[in-house]
Every structure is written in C-alpha cells, then in structure tokens.
Amino acid sequence: MRMEIDVIMDYQLTQAAPVLLTLAAAHTAGQTVDDSLLAVEGARLHWIEAEDMVGQRVWAFPTADRFKLHYHAKVTVTRPDVILPDLPHTPFHDLPGPVLRYLRPSRFCQSDLFTDFVGEAFGHLTGGAKIAAMRDWIEAEIAYVPGSSNPATTATDTFGARAGVCRDYAHLMCALARAANIPARYTSVYGAAVTPPDFHAVAEVWLNGGWHLVDATGMGTAAQLAVIASGRDAVDVAFMENESGAQPLNQVITVSQI
User: Fold this and answer.
1) Which end of the chain offers a freer environment for a tag, N or C, measured as fewer CB atoms within 10 Å?
2) What is the pTM of this model?
3) What is the CATH number of the domain that holds 14?
4) Residue (of 83, 81, 63, 60) closest to 71 by Cα position
C-alpha cells in the first residue's frame, strides 16, 4: 500500500524556545519513505534517533514565538498482515534485552493491576490467540468517544470508563498484553482509514521473535499503517514537546491512499 501524508501545524509558543517533534514516518522494516519534506518556518532543525532506533525525532530551534510547520511524505508500506492466532508466544528467557522493558508497567499502562482480569478472561489462550482475543474484547467493550479522555487518562481509567480514543485503546492493549507476559509497546502511526484524521496510536506486541502491529480501534491493519515511532506509552512518542508551553491555532492532518 502506498500513502501520502500531509501535516500542517500552527502553534503559539509561550516563548521562542526549542521544540521536539516526533512526526516523520520512520525508515524501518515493512515500509519505505519514498519522499519526505519537513519545513518549519524560521527555525533551524537538528535530527536525532528516536527510542529503539525506530524513526527519528527532530529538534526545531525557532526564532519567534509563532511555530508553523509543514510535513509531507509518500510512504510505501510492504508490511504484510499476519494471522495473530498463528503466532506463538516467545518464552521469557528467549526475549532480547531491549524487549524486556516492554513487559513492565509504565505510567499509563499499569499492567500489574490487570493480572487477575487477564488470567480470568484470557488465561485459557496463549500467544497470538490471546492477543487477538484481547484486541477483540477492547474493540467490543470500549466506545470510541472523542473528548472522553485527557492527557492524564491511564489504562485503568479507560477500563473503568469503557470509553476513550486511540491513545487510550493502545494503552489498554499494552497493559493487557504485558499482564499476560507478552511484551507490548505503544506506537504512533499514520493511517489512511483513521477517522477523524489525526496522529494515530496502536500497540505492537512481541510474538514469534518480532514486533507486530495491533490496532484495537479496528481502523487499520499492519499493512495499512505507516509507523512513526515507538515507546513505553504516549509519553515516549509525543508528536510535539517543549518546556515553555504552546497553544494550537491550527492543525490539519491528511493521509490518503495513492
């Protein structure tokens, strides 16, 4: 699948201070960035590697307190869809070192609080079959309601409220998987079928010796998503960060299939 991505952002900064961006499609396995351009008005850019070497971040050093950017890219996704139930669980002792931290609780994915629920609801399943059942449970039980959560909402909040947005779905998916001793990380992506169009969030789980994308919202499959970056939860892959604060004036994200 080939997709075209276009991002326009216009923010009012509290002051002209450095801004960290994580919004460029990654040069990573399963996808090729055929063409890309990031232009930030009146700012010098400095690119750095993102966590786990998945994607890149960029520091923007603006000279004014008005922050305007345009990102455009064309990405070819060659990542195939997989049949999750066919993927076996990787034993704890066979997990690579960098993967181990994705078994542990994080700020928004309190996996240690879901151990009993996961055992009762999914304990009869293993590996990819367990992940598929978790994904189906979240999609069926959690209502996608824009505005129903906020930046402080955790996986336990979403579980209790039974409502959220993609960020919340991904956090809950990660928490349930980790509670089942299956490594899971939070991954930001672009998807042509995401409604409303925005930066999208999914989970990635480690099965059969590799990472596999799982979108519990049902808006995309592995073959339909372009990866940006991955981390423990949303804190690690925020699309924009700065120390002084910023107010959005305009933001438009368009992703279309070519």
Assistant:
1) C
2) 0.95
3) 2.60.40.2250
4) 60
